[in-house]
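lol ok so funny story. i was supposed to be doing the assay writeup but got distracted and ended up predicting the structure for this chain instead. priorities right. anyway since i did it might as well share w the group, maybe its usefull for someone
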Amino acid sequence: IDAVLEDIGVDAVKIGMLHSPEIVRTVAQVIARHQMQRVVFDPVMVATSGAKLITDEAIAVLVAELFPRALVITPNLDEAALLVGQPLHTPQDMAQAAQTLLGLGARAVLLKGGHLDGDTVIDVLQVAGAEPLWMQAPRIATANTHGTGCTLSSAIAAYLALGLTLPQAVQQARDYVRGALLAGANVKTGQGSGPLNHGFAPQAMRCLPRV
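and the output, tada:
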């Protein structure tokens, strides 16, 4: 990791699932050592089945070591519920949980409400010291949702690397994910939950100045 950062450098970083306390500490040390600013942390902790994927010790370390170093964390409802210690069923629950996560050291929280019931998907971006930004869109009817959260956090990092502000990057990333969901909605891939169509709008590579 150090070799890549020192040779090529990065404009933004997305962090996904980190299984052990040792790995969490290693990543946190790299972020601190290289003074990385545009860090998007998707705290993957709960499987689709509801099973917890990492230990309580690892959760405690990632809260202490990574939350303060990330520009934004992007938990879904299940992950946020695990972190705050209570289930989340309403937008009001989401708002309170976002504030609680800020209290745990996060600088900004994008709380994804896709698991709420209803025909509308509701997300909230809460930045410390700012008013919440609520975003909603009609739910897309598809079984092909595998990787939606990972795609969203990766897209946020990509838009941050292009120089967008955090609210702009979040909204652009949500639009991209919706486009990928719509483009792959009727694709049949095996028997389970299929993936998004990430390549629905390819563009030629551009050379950009470092930001």
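Residues 15 and 51 are 20 Å apart (CA to CA). The beta strands are 13-15, 39-41, 72-73, 108-112, 120-127, 133-138.
back to the writeup now i swear
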